[in-house]
Amino acid sequence: MSWHVPSDTLTRFATQPEALDDVTASSIEQHLMACGDCRSIVAAASDSLAVEASWSAIADVIDAPSSWPAERALTRLGVPEDLSRVVGATPGLRLAWLAAVVLVGVAAVAAARESGTETAFLVAAPLVPLVAVTLAFLPVADPGGEAAVATALHGPGLALRRTLAVLLPTVVLLAVAGLAVPGMAGWGVAWVLPGLGLASASLAVSTFVRVPVAVCLTAVAWFAALAASGPGALRHAAADAALFQPAGQLGFVALIAVAVLTLVARRGRFATMEVSW
Amino acid sequence: MSTIRVSGVTKRFGSTLALQEVDVELGPGITGLLGPNGAGKTTLLRILATVLPPDAGTVSSFGHDPATASGRLAVRRQLGYLPQEPGFHRSFTAFEFVDYVAILKEWGDRRARHDEVRRVLALVGLEAVMHRQIRKLSGGMRRRVGIAQALLGDPALLVLDEPTAGLDPEQRLRFREVLSDVASRATVLLSTHQTDDVAAMCATVSVLLGGGVRFSGSPAELAALARDRVWLEAERDPRAQLAWITGDGMVRHIGDPPAGVLLVEPTVEDGYLTLCGAVAEPVAAGDGGA
To answer: Is B101 in contact with A147 (Cβ distance < 8 A)?
Structure first.
């Protein structure tokens, strides 16, 4: 290189770049690409801490992990970035799961329309939150695997946040689907308490037995209760079953209360791998 | 000085007794944990990592009781844990996985967290592939991703389950270098099948057999269990407890040596094999001499 930028100009370039006009700054940048001597002067004049911070900021943008749709939605709702990531990571918030919820809803609506009653929807809908919440609670479903279990944030608090995050879209999607069921106007929310009851009961039971067993026991209990609560409840007259009458709904409130108390008493099991498949 | 105390810990899975009244004390530096498959090593590590609670007995980590919620949280804030099978999410890159674990370790500030993630990935030599999906990494690289997440935050307690499994010799040496640096300011428990790792890195070693601790002492003391019980011959001696042909064509034997054979200095592996083959009662350090 036969010529060099004056050292005072290089010093200003390094410390006060805003003091240089665009043409001069661009010319210096072009020159620095080929001149090691001038780069050395710029490096010596630069504030090393500022350069480090600048590189850190650039690397931070380059390295930023790609985000999941649920994570972006939570962030837009004001949830902090780090919490959005660990809550949004649950399988219960993946598009595949939400698509499955929509499919179940559509199938139940189609079956209800075909039969001309709301029975298919009322029987199937409460089972969806059961599976959704189970997915949200599983330690093995955490993308961090077993390493994640041994971290400070892992525990009932995170599990509760994930549960709420999963329940909300699931309930909303099913509620929307329910609007398309003939005769659901009066029964639009009748499945919600049974759904929450089954989900919380399953979680409580999973602190005693393995998760698949708990889910199966709860599902079987649901069908048994339906069959016992009124003639033809499983085929064509679910809305007439006692479970969907005020007394039955109060029974689900009691079931939720008992399940929540059990979960509070045994919450420590969600902090370890004791609740597992 | 003990930082970790395990007293009378018992753990059962159904009808299988994984650990039976285990007593272990760990201090600063690296402690190796040896034992055959099914001896209870992973269960003990999981208990120390607060991933599993014991059925009976107590654990004290830096004075905290992990059986309580507050004690467990206090332990986890000082803990780095590499499970035997980390269970990586298939779509994560190495950076995303370590970043995810860092969030769970309460690294809330994004820029500081990313700096820390880059630091630990560089420590294990993965900076060049940190944005590659984990499913596309080799087994050894995946192992190093697991090690990296365990090193987040320079933990005071590091629990590592077979960290060198799948690492090539160069990576193992690099791992030893990193771990010896970490161990200068931390308590490290290292479960392994590699007796040469124990000999090279560990100040103390415990041997777990059949759910109980059968030996605790230094690697030299473990090796000494086989003193005057290891010999070389040109032919295999059927009276030996164990015998194998070495690289130079000689047959190395462990057992009760016949008269006049060439006795050799035992290694940690010899001591370990002697213990596995012979122990019926707990062996205290220093009991293994001739």
So the answer is: yes
